[in-house]
Amino acid sequence: MPAPVQKPTTLDDSAATVQRLMDQYTEIARLAGGLAHEIKNPLSTIRLNMDLLAEDLGDAESPVVRRSLKRVDVVRRECQRLQLLLDDFLNFAKARRLNLVPTDLNHQIEDVLEFFAPEAKGAGVEIVRYLDPELPHVLLDREAFRQALLNLIINAKQAMPDGGQLMVRTAAEQNLVAVYLIDTGIGMDERTALQMFEPFYTTKPGGSGLGLPTTQKIVEAHGGRIGVQSEVGRGTQITIELPVPARLAKE
Hints:
Structural class: alpha+beta
CATH superfamily of the largest domain: Histidine kinase-like ATPase, C-terminal domain
CATH class of the largest domain: Alpha Beta
Number of helices: 7
Helix content: 40-55%
CATH topology of the largest domain: Heat Shock Protein 90
Number of domains: 2
Distance between the termini: 60 Å
Low-confidence stretches: 1-14
Mean pLDDT: 79
Order of helices and strands: HHEHEEHEEHHEEH
């Protein structure tokens, strides 16, 4: 029996497949977001009632009431943790419609570093810049990319609990631009580096494990890619590569 003849995949077929997958993803993201919002409503009610209960018990001094207050505080802290987790999840799950405009990447980086400067100073982190003045413009959703960059910088700061240095470098490489974030922090072993962009994976107590996966989604939505190199005790390098459209490369 002759093998069935398979119809060759055309460009139109590929585009239709991509569109179908995007539609499915958008629907899943909508349902997940709706579920998270439904959880947030009763969670807010629980938090409010715990606050009111703490006020009612606040003036009593008996051992029983003190034990009750400790339990109320536990519930309040867990409600806060769940609230933060839901906020991170909603940010991760939402379908992204990027508003891409030609952008000076160096200027975008400088803006984020200036915003972060007081926190870096307080943590004893020195920021060193090596920004290529000849860097071509790229297409960015400025707000989304700002969030992604800030996530990475905060992550670098947290990897340097005793202070250190964060080097930020940009470079043009053929038809793309690269951003390098190099810290002198505690570094990661190979297993952690391989898993750091997986949703809900975290090595931080109380962390949601969604900040870096959200960053990866934003970078990839720009047509870019993100990578990591790390060594325990030496530090970490994060590399972001973004495409340069031909029309911008000529400007």
